[in-house]
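The data layer described in this paper is built around a simple, fixed record for each protein. Such a record has a labelled line for the sequence and another for the backbone structure tokens. For reference, a complete record is included directly beneath this paragraph.
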Amino acid sequence: MMQLEKVSSFIKKHHLINKGDTVIVAVSGGPDSVCLLDILCRLKDEFELKLIVAHLNHGLRPEAQLEAVGVEKMSKARAIPFETKTVNIRTYKKELGLSEEEAGRKARYDFLFDTAGKHRASRIATGHHLDDQAETVLLHIIRGTGVDGLAGMLPKRSGDDFQLVRPLLCLRRSEIEEYCRDNKLQTFTDSSNLETDYTRNRLRLELIPQLEAQYNPRIREALFSLASLAADDRRFLRNLAWKQHHKLAKFQEGKTVIDRQGLMALPAALRGRVLRIAMNNHVTAKYLGKKHIEQLLSAVGRGQTGKYLSIPGGVTAYCSYNKLVLYDESRKKQKKFIEVPLKVPGKTYLPHGLVISASIEDVHYLAWPTSSYRAYLDLDKIPPGPIKIRTRWPGARFYPHGSAGSKKLKDFLIDQKIPSDRRDVLPLVTVGNEIIWVAGIRIAHPYRVTDQTRAVLVLECKFLKRKRKTDLKNGKGGRHNDE
């Protein structure tokens, strides 16, 4: 059978299925999904597959229950496990404030994801075909899109623990119907596919036939070819964007910090993509539109320090000198520590994974040069009293090493270009109201090591290494992301 060979080759070309995979097969009962089920059954031994049929009853049509029974019979006849669920889409759409199309799609994919988790499946297979691809690309063009939208539906998309695969993208609808007739497969017709209330149905029933009749009889193939070329470009640009993201962006303490000048030096085709990848650390893609990326790029271009921009989904962005900072609004009020005794000798653990170690050393055994993260202080010059670590307080003053005298701590931090949101959580090593070290930045001048120094208080601050969960391949981008 020609269709079987085409699908087998398509699966191998795009690495859609591996030997030994457990595959959830989405079967509505229509020709597309029934064809998919039959073809996967025929390829079952070759790929050593375990198949599970999943059917969602949307509760919209009187015949829906009969279709559910029919799909269950197909599964039993093939000795394949069957999973089903009924959802009242009309009630569901009201609860979520979605259109009927959107609610149906969400309910369908939620069910498939849950079924995949239940069976620990590595693949979810759907019956999307070449005509569906053409409709998707045309719909994206009408609504406005970039290269990613022109790519339409990819043969596979990576999710948290599985891949969504579309083995029938290589077949026309007519080829699928022919396959079902030739193999005498029972199928059901969804009457809602003939209604023009839905945008996609109007494309299928009205616009595409008109384009075929008046402009290009092979418009579906042309749109499919466009999607394939755009997918190659999309993959190339995404790989470049990921490389630049790794180079320019750092995720620290719940924030993404991006090199602003480095970002603006990138070609325009990459800037927005790098920002989207960075935003995926904080918000799902559905909250992020083209206008939000344009607003971010505009803010980056101006580089106005301290100017805040709110993004839907609870994300705030601002420029801080040569950095663009993104963070979740829920993290805006960071946990402060008011006062913690410093263990001498020993290690003092602080919020945000910071630890300050302290020891007393002979001046002759010090390693030079030191760094801003290691402080050498003349022990004999430090005022009597307990040494503590605390955050800043109103009116705090500091005498920076190398300066002519003391100044307001706030002014010193501004001079050092410390972002405003960091100033309130910056650790200060103090004795009474005397700041002897602004941790990680500078020691106080009166307590520097000199030729007369004998004993030295050595302080060092470090961040503990913490593992952070990342989404498969592409970071956060919804329940499943394009590969």
